[in-house]
Amino acid sequence: MQLKKVYDFAKGLTEFVKGIKEINAVLKITTGIQAALDIVMSPWFFIPAAIIAVIAVLVLLYNKCKPFRDFVNALWKDVSKLFGGLFKWIGQAVKKVGDFFNGIGKWWNKNQKANQKANEQQKKRKRQIHERSQERLGRPWLWYR
Asked: What whole-number distance in Å separates Cα of residue 93 and Cα of residue 89?
């Protein structure tokens, strides 16, 4: 009788542990599902997904709906006429700014070459002065020349 009670208790405990393990597995699955939902529901996922969906709808409309395609083509033609002059002006302005900075670069290079030449002349003059002073200091009879 006592042995049967111990056996029943051990069997019940085993069933209890199995149930806890099953609950743990279910909790892991629901945690994974919650993590996936967190990603899907965050703005970092939702906003780009919405933008991609809108682009996909517009592409589909353009490819499948002739009135929409004609409307978009006409709109693009008008916009390109409107902004064509502006884009040309911007291109010319960018070119002039580039030419300006190119001119600064040329001036800088020219200035650096002039500085380098002046430095070389200065070094040469210092060397000459040093050599003369060494020559005269080395021979005192030349001091009063």
From this structure: 6
104 closest CA partner among 22, 96, 75, 30: 96
CA dihedral 19, 21, 26, 28 (to 10 degrees): 160
Per-residue tokens: 59: 């592409």
For residue range 56-113, list pLDDT tens digits in order.
Answer: 999 999 999 999 999 999 998 888 887 777 778 888 888 888 888 888 888 888 888 8
Q: Could you tell me the residue ranges of all domains in the chain?
A: 42-142
Phi first, then psi, for residue 130 (nearest 5°) are -60, -45
Q: DSSP of 22-89, one letter per residue?
A: HHHHHHHHHHHHHHHHHHHHSHHHHHHHHHHHHHHHHHHHHHH-HHHHHHHHHHHHHHHHHHHHHHHH
Name residues whose C-beta falls within 8 Å of residue 135's C-beta, 6 or more positions apart in sequence: 142
Structural tokens at position 114: 């002039």
